[in-house]
Write a structure and sequence with these properties.
mainly alpha, about 80% helix, single chain, about 210 residues
């Protein structure tokens, strides 16, 4: 199934890119250990919670799972679309792109800190968990509703790899990435998939 893969890939890539940009800024601010360990810890914690909640999806009928997935995809897509359109019209960029350190209130160091900063770790972990939760909001209902767990997980993995590759290639040039346009395209894609699923449900119920 292409739809679960596309939805998972798009949702993961957009949200993980935001986490990666903030982590990259924190690394350059002199906190490499805190940034990388917190980014991993935040995502692992959220995905571990998802694994614990996995049996719950078997308690719901497939119709309601598909309906919930379609509504969530449509709502998330519309939210990202309208937010991106508003920013494009105003010529604005999100704060995490223009001032990632300001978003998480981290002060740059002139040299790498000798002692591990638990404050920076917790701030980065919180940001990482928020973005991981948004990935989960897209991926979990899509995979549960379609039963295509393999395709959805491959989409997540592909999204993370794509962002990691982009970070490596665009080292030092991240501000050139048109993140608003990318999020707009992703929002339109998720909206299209959600509406498609709603139409399929309507036809099946007719």
């Amino acid at each position: 199934m292409a739809q679960p893969f596309l939805a998972s890939f798009a949702g993961t890539a957009v949200e993980f890119f935001e986490t990666a940009v903030i982590a990259y800024a924190i690394v350059r601010a002199g906190y490499p250990r805190e940034a990388l360990s917190a980014m991993v810890a935040g995502h692992v914690a959220v995905f571990a919670l998802a694994v614990l909640l996995l049996p719950l999806h078997g308690m719901l009928p497939v119709f309601w799972l598909r309906l919930g997935a379609a509504v969530l995809l449509t709502a998330m897509g519309l939210h990202w679309t309208q937010k991106s359109v508003r920013r494009l019209l105003a010529g604005q960029r999100p704060r995490w792109a223009d001032d990632p350190l300001g978003k998480v209130n981290v002060v740059p160091q002139s040299a790498p800190a000798a002692a591990f900063s638990w404050w920076v770790f917790l701030v980065m972990a919180k940001s990482s968990m928020v973005e991981a939760a948004e990935i989960l909001i897209v991926v979990f209902p899509v995979a549960a509703a379609s039963g295509a767990w393999g395709e959805a997980l491959w989409g997540v993995a592909a999204g993370i790899v794509a962002v990691a590759a982009a970070m490596a290639l665009l080292h030092g040039q991240l501000k050139k990435v048109p993140e608003v346009k990318l999020k707009l395209a992703t929002g339109l894609l998720l909206t299209l998939l959600g509406v498609w699923w709603l139409a399929e449900l309507y036809i099946d119920a007719s």
